[in-house]
């Protein structure tokens, strides 16, 4: 056993690495730390990501109804409990200015601020700030203390109040006790129960020996493409934060350079990736910096490791500060020290007034971080957060000076500077958007303060139903009408799938509800080109049907599109000798072009959609060094599919001819449009040889070993189901002599799941 002494803390730890706990040396095993599969085989497809955060990890069980439990909380008392806590102080982590409000705003902001529009991942929705890697990012320094401080409130309300809801509501209450009128709050966030191991946070290698220096980490980032200053200089997709281990940008400027215009560039890139425009960006920064202070009293290299690698006795708390009490006036977070305003616990316009009234010059914090102070020695002072009677100079960060320097941001600042009411409203709405952006449809919102108006375009509003919903008789009649309309089974299946496949479980956006397949931008995407004439035909079916109805009964285009796919699957299964009834739940509504945010929906456009065997023409430029099957896996993950569901869905789509261009790639059957298990039988057959058809191994020829004749063609998104051992194991089940009926039934189940992913109104 190796003893390791820490000279800073004079503590001794024991290194058990490479040792068996039962004696002798350990080569590996369940109790040890052998190399992971990704170490042995770095290019393997990590299919196990589809089963992360599964039911086995959830102590509440599958039957727990969070909405019902949340509804039983006395919401008024809950807010009173939170607000009473906010104006207290505890010895082990005293509040600044006797008010935990600013600290809790930061916690909530950083929980929500990981959201990114590119793939909908991040955000406060699952309270992932509790787990690695997010909990241990340098930019989240001391948010572990914030969560520990509100644990007594979480403990009181138990499972009826999720961590995600508590963190955001605490941020709202903090704003309210300091005089800010919040726009509202909606509960409904369901906590995750394990670390997120699938989200791609960047290409940089984590250096645990330098986890306490933002500068040491960000100077090695690899996420920017092109040369700094060039027109093509941009942040790698799907990333949003400008540097590794940050929520938004380095407050000292890019690479701690103190460059305001460079900081403005990073701010605009980052906040745009997080779905905020210039006005919302300024409102959030200026509004957030109206409160509290930044902490930088101790050098970064004096601070202990973050929670995930802190010693056992730290009990989940990281960043131990050895100076003084380690808290209060000795606190260290991002290294910058000071407050932006003379009254850090009161909502006012002092931040913008100070920013524009004074000239600012660079200086250094006690921790050595670059920051700015007023040139005018007569500028107002701000009270010390802990030492009575002590006054300190005001402070600005480089990211603050950027708002004054960048012309577009400056114009917004000046508008808010002269219209405090407009600023207040803008910050109120932007904060609501920030903290609710990842929650999806309003049907998921809980509580008495939720906002239900249709004016918030980022919520992807769908007008309420103004007609009766079709029943079993109308559904049966419509199926016959659709199948007799001259549209093929392949086209009907492809179109229904295309409508539903925009869904993202990450932020609950997309899906067939709303009928947006008929609207821009979706109708114009290359991957959806095949749907255009089908949608036109189905729109005709809808109009003819509705004209014949009376008594307010109508059917939406969204319902007709999905019903067409269901009818086609039933026919394809029957033609294969298996009679099935594909479930169909009516009630989808159609939205309008005016209620569709084209820019935000453009982010849902796929680069690779292996389900439809689609690869964007610019794929290699958009995602260099990424294999199509990796993005295919990512899409399956966003659709909340398990590995068996993924395999079954693709096998059915292939034999029914649902490729985006109608090509024969992966269509391993001579009976296209029939729901056979031919895809799996060919995929697992020893009678075929698989040969590369191009130098990069993006396409393949399937050759009969006996005759040398080419029988089929395929892409990587086809052959992965035979080459990957986990996917092949499932494919072999469906290829077996007893696999056909099982496959058809499993396909119908996953088809129904896909069509219902966005139907949150049916789950309340």
TrEMBL record:
Obligatory cofactor(s): heme b
EC number: 1.11.1.21
Binding site for heme b: 289
A molecular function GO annotation: catalase activity
Top-level taxon in the UniProt lineage: Bacteria
Residue(s) of cross-link: Tryptophyl-tyrosyl-methioninium (Tyr-Met) (with Trp-109): 248-274
Pfam families listed in its UniProt record: peroxidase
Reactions catalysed, as given in the entry: 2 H2O2 = O2 + 2 H2O; H2O2 + AH2 = A + 2 H2O
PTM field: Formation of the three residue Trp-Tyr-Met cross-link is important for the catalase, but not the peroxidase activity of the enzyme.
Active-site residues per Swiss-Prot or TrEMBL entry: 110 (proton acceptor)
Complex formation: Homodimer or homotetramer.
Protein name: Catalase-peroxidase
Protein source organism: Polaromonas sp. H6N
Upper taxonomic lineage: Bacteria, Pseudomonadati, Pseudomonadota, Betaproteobacteria, Burkholderiales
Chain's gene name: katG
